[in-house]
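so my prof wants the structure for this chain in the tokens format not the other one, which i didnt know existed until like an hour ago. anyway here's the sequence
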Amino acid sequence: MSRYAQKFNGCRASLALALGCGALVTMFSSAAEPPGRSTPKPPQSRVVIVHDPAATEAFKPVPNLVRTMVDAGITRLTGKTNLTAAWLSFVSPKDVVGLKVLSAPGADAGTRPAVVAAVIEGLLAAKIPATNIVVWDRQRADLRKAGYAEMAEHYGAQLEGSANSGFDESAFYNPERPILGQLVWGDIEFGRKGEGVGRRSYVTRLLTKQITKIITITPMLNHNAAGVNGHLYSLAQGSVDNFIRFENDLLRLSTAVPEIYALPAVGDKVVLNITDALLCQYHGENHGLLHYAVMLNELRFSKDPVALDFLSLRDMEQVRLNAKTFVPRESSFTNQVELVNNAALLELGTSELENIQIERVSLGGSAEPERSSGLERPKPSAPAH
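here's what i got, hopefully its the right format
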């Protein structure tokens, strides 16, 4: 049974109640407990943040430094002194490891190929067969445009699109209140007629038939409705068909994404999440707009996707405030926290800062001290003009 399945129905009811009452947690703060009640705190989620001030040059990653950052993050998160042992604590040579990236925004704003290459090199060093490594996103065409085809060929890894692989009629997401979708070519029910058509979202066969473990690698990039193109949104959007019906409605999106992530064929397979925070782009959504970006030169590692997405939202807002550059009015809608708070209600992770244990690792001669908790505001470089 899914590690989320036993909790799902009860939490779904709690989620519906919270949405109906508007009881969403205030942005970047914790909800106050009722007087006289003491609620046991969940175990802390760990986030390891690796910083190297020289990791990028003119907004481009420096591959050898990125590889060192990935190695440092993996060993720190696992507590292993041996890099092979660290990777093998997540996956085995028998696994088919899917590296879920966000490629549609391109190589500058989306997941950067240099980060994915560093992960592949670590997996190869741990004796994971190259043919058992799958770099994937929704569309192969987006992966090719972002430069992943050349990278996959170089390492002998597979390159797959979840939509190109087709969808599985035996595994699907059926919202509690079914919404009629706008089916497009590639959706499993496209062209079908009849009652109930367009009300389910089917899981890609890439996950139900091929990939056994997932590592999500997402950028620190805003999303006008989801808040951030983070681990929750990226995996949910890339895993099922008939997703367009959720995109333009905040309530639908913030409910559907956590529930899709909680499907056994999706979230159960996630073993590691890496936030590519080499750059932080705080406006632009699916378009690379480097004049709305700053270099943070960080990679963030955790088993908790909610904690990582929460921290991305928190820090992105501070970067936006620090940038002192004109941002179009629609950017005011990018600070949405409903999705991560709903994911926390489904117990996919934590969105409370006091329950996130943050460990910092500084490389490259950085004078920034390590901190075990209490994330300080980022001090980004000046934005590009």
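also thought this was worth mentioning. Confidence is low (pLDDT under 50) at residues 13-37, 369-385.
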